Predict the 3D structure of the following.
Amino acid sequence: MTMETTPTPQTITTDGFRLHPEDEGAMRAEASHYEQPQAACIEALKIVQHRHGWVPDDAIPAIARVLGVGPASVEGVATFYSLIFRQPVGRHVILVCDSSSCFLTGSDQLREKLTDRLGIGLGQTTPDGRFTLLPVCCLGACDGGPAMMIGDDVYGPVDEEDLADILEGYP
Amino acid sequence: MNSQRQSPLYRSRLLQPGADRSPDTHPLTWRLRDDGQVVGLKEYESKEGYRAVSQVLNGHDPGAVIAAMKEANVRGRGGAGFSAGLKWSLTLQGDDIPRGYIVCNADEMEPGTFKDRLLMEQQPHLLIEGMILAAFANNARYGYIFLRGEYVESARVLTAALAEAREAGWLGPDIAGSSFDFDIALHTGAGRYICGEETALLNSLEGHRANPRAKPPFPGQSGAWGKPTVVNNVETLCNVPAVMLRGAEWYQGLSGDRTDDGGTKLYGASGLVNRPGLWELPIGTTGRELLELAGGLREGRKLKAWLPGGASTGFLLPEHLDLPLDFDTVGKEGSRLGTGLITVVTEDQSMVALMRNLEEFFARESCGWCTPCRDGLPWTVKLLLALERGEGEAGDVELLDKLAADCGPGLTFCAHAPGAAMPLQTALRHFRREFEQGVRYPRGKAHADPIPAGGV
Ligand SMILES: Cc1cc2nc3c(=O)[nH]c(=O)nc-3n(C[C@H](O)[C@H](O)[C@H](O)COP(=O)(O)O)c2cc1C
Ligand code: SF4
Ligand code: FES
């Protein structure tokens, strides 16, 4: 298995979507870790998401072309995984754990405080595009329940009084 | 952050100070630092790190590794408790068989479980060393760490450690001058609990939807891209180096006469305990000992029930607190050891509400392949919600019995549905009255639309 890649210089565009050449190279580099390029599909979706915040429909055929697979199989993957966003999301995605240990330590109250404060429900984005609120399975932080994640950061146990300060850290 | 209060950034931690841990008694955690910083390559090497790899690979006898693992009886720490050595002895190997893969299951998503995170975030080289040894035993040519997408810190630490190991020659061609070659890539997921099921994990690794595959063939016969593939949990693999260095007999002895299972286990406790956390303890430690380590229940609460090892295990009662928490003993009580991290339920907490929460999880995380799981679980949620609100009807509790039975072992394509059934069946058995109290209407009067279609 080698790390070498031979990025093709042409720019892949499908309808309204233009794949960044750097991203295409990153996808090809990922694909080189596997027997078949299809295996880089989730990573490719994440690469697009990293740049655009979400995965627009027109990105699907572009990824399919880089990996040499059918658009339907990319679409199938893109719709299966919960951390691939198919709609625009806010600048910061808040994942609130709703699994058992957090449920027993107050995740319902935490979620209520969040929805009150942000004025949105689960699955929604604040009108200023700052936060999207989503539920998530056990974050593996149950000894810190109730737990939540904002961007790359995990918080827990989250106390009502901490919320304002925590959110302030994400402009 | 401009606050006086300490920001509650979560950090994985072990609640045992270094002074309490030694190489002879704590094979998984003795190297962990009290400051919680990563044990880097140099420090790992200075503490017997990669010594097992040098010795074993230069012994050129993969069969001996499998024999030692079988003798030590290291049982799978992902929850099923299958002997790793036995699994490895069934991996297809031979001159006409292509070299396959070692896949580390680092998808940790079982509600109530937070153990693999600690090993990856603070001691990544132990996992890498375990994977190299597993690769050598199973003649694998390449390894993948299948890490759940939310474990960003684990990904950061593992990426750095893999580069360190490669740089030092522990990964790549001719490892430790043994002529054995092996390398590892980190593969991060994008959500969905079902990815942790080993065959779903392989589909996900290959870039497909994470539907499980039929077994047989088992992954050891035909796994990733049809090659022999060994899937093991993070903690399982982290046990391998010490077994190879200190021997199967020593490993067996770690649990004393508590149980027949050998070794130690990362045990933990969460819920309304005073000091929720994680400890490395001999296999066969009891629930009571864990509760004591966790400082008891908060504000004088009383214990009602507990899950021994995650959402997909069966409820145990206070009367079970003195049982050794090993795979067979817990299995005999109608539950499973699972991941060994207990979730505590107190007297003031509603079993019906908790069951509703658990089945919401299982219903949402179903991959949708089999009817009892895809359609039956949302139905249980609907019934449990009605009972929780005191708006159930006669027959609802019996219907829950039936829906749970339909998800029992062998009736669905994978163990997700049986995992959803076990807590429900044990809750209905131990706390039936609580469920019955939610019945208010005669049969046929409560639910306008008795069979819900689609998701929750
Ligand atoms: C729905 C489901 C989810 C699972 N999730 C995990 C997981 O997150 N981590 C894990 O190690 N095993 C998980 N397992 C168990 C694996 O299928 C498999 O038994 C395990 O990875 C084998 O490794 P071990 O023998 O070392 O435990 C899960 C099983 C099921 C049915
Ligand atoms: S039991 Fe559930 S999760 Fe497992 S294959 Fe069937 S539908 Fe999918
Ligand atoms: S249940 Fe919330 S982090 Fe585990």
In short: Residues B 76-80, 82, 84, 105, 107-110, 193-194, 196-198, 231-233, 236, 414-416, 419 surround flavin mononucleotide (ligand 1) (CB under 6 Å). The longest strand of chain B covers residues 140-147. The domain at 351-441 of chain B is CATH 1.20.1440.230 (de novo design (two linked rop proteins)). Chain B touches chain A through 64 residues (CB under 8 Å).
